[in-house]
Write a structure and sequence with these properties.
Strand order of the largest sheet: 4-3-5-12-6
Strand content: 15-25%
Helix content: 40-55%
Order of helices and strands: HHHHEEHEHEHEEEHEHEHEHEEH
Number of strands: 12
Number of domains: 3
Distance between the termini: 59 Å
CATH topology of the largest domain: D-Maltodextrin-Binding Protein, domain 2
CATH architecture of the largest domain: 3-Layer(aba) Sandwich
Length: about 300
């Protein structure tokens, strides 16, 4: 097979949606045979189609190890691109359905929890006034999860962080994200005027899962004091679960300060007088650089960046 990479026009002329569906089915079901059955074709026909797909993109997408297909780096890139194609088609389907129902479009937004009570809420409130018939879907999660959904075309805009020095996105910063350590009202540490790290170590903790940015900031704090994370650590990516656990126990947790202040205002949490040595990188609006943004998406971005960050 020649390693001649086709340009976009050649791909559009040669690529067939059935080939896209085949690769997505292999990834979902794990084997070529299962993918062929799902698409209603014989395995020899699926094998031939896969070979045609590899010829179309100019590279092998799988390595043949006996009778087993193992996806390679080129296949993973193709799979990511095809997921974006599927997401774009799903978006088109939703927009056409909304148009049929008399709605004025749809917007899918993903956001970090830190931006939810501030930038996101204010922008959505203004957008609802200006476009009352617009259907809006909001997904709250970690940057890693949201960026995956953006890549797959399931989100139009993300309020989060761009991974590394990625060039596939357009990023506009909104705010830094200071972190607060929180406890329950009435916690033994709540009334402390000055808090040492050693005292924090005496209590159990709730933290986000490994490899998440906030977990890394807390881990750096423990490492700076040559200490290990406490035993009995509870891990969850859910802010709601974290808040309910902390409010009912003597556990300590780290939350975005903007979120912590909201729960403190309603006496669900107390913010501890302790300053972490590190902070999270700035978050902002993120869109795919290779995907045109709808008019409603552009309007949302304008409102997002012109608004303030008043917490709830």
């Amino acid at each position: 097979m020649k390693n001649q990479i086709p340009n976009v026009t050649q791909l559009l002329n040669r690529l067939r949606m059935r080939q896209v569906a085949l690769l997505l089915a292999i990834e979902e079901l794990g084997t070529l045979g299962a993918a062929a059955r799902q698409l209603g074709m014989t395995q020899p026909a699926a094998t031939k189609m896969l070979a045609e797909l590899e010829s179309t993109v100019g590279q092998r997408l799988f390595e043949r190890v006996g009778r087993v297909l193992q996806i390679n780096d080129a296949g993973r890139y193709a799979l990511l691109g095809f997921k974006g194609v599927r997401g774009t088609l799903e978006q088109l389907q939703r927009q056409l359905r909304d148009l049929q129902l008399g709605l004025s479009g749809r917007l899918s937004v993903g956001s970090l929890m830190a931006a939810s009570p501030t930038y996101l809420t204010l922008a959505l409130a203004k957008l609802q006034v200006q476009r009352p018939r617009l259907s809006v879907q909001v997904e709250v999660g970690t940057s890693e999860r949201l960026m995956t959904l953006l890549d797959e075309g399931r989100l139009d805009v993300v309020i989060g962080r761009v991974p590394g020095a990625a060039t596939d996105y357009q990023f506009r910063p909104l705010s830094e994200e200071p972190i607060a350590l929180v406890c329950a009202p009435g916690h033994p540490l709540e009334k402390s005027r000055k808090l040492s790290f050693e005292r924090l170590q005496q209590f159990p903790w709730v933290l986000q899962p490994e490899a998440t940015p906030m977990r890394e900031v807390v881990l750096q704090e423990f490492q700076a004091h040559h200490a290990q994370l406490p035993n009995g650590l509870l891990e969850t990516s859910s802010t709601l679960i974290t808040v309910h656990l902390v409010s009912r126990t003597q556990m300590i947790a780290a939350l975005p300060r903007s979120v912590a202040k909201g729960f403190q205002k309603h006496r669900m949490l107390a913010i501890l007088p302790y300053r972490l040595r590190h902070s999270l990188a700035s978050y902002g609006s993120v869109v795919r650089a290779d995907r045109p943004l709808s008019n409603q998406g552009q309007e949302f971005l304008r409102l997002l960046h012109e608004g303030g960050s008043d917490a709830w």
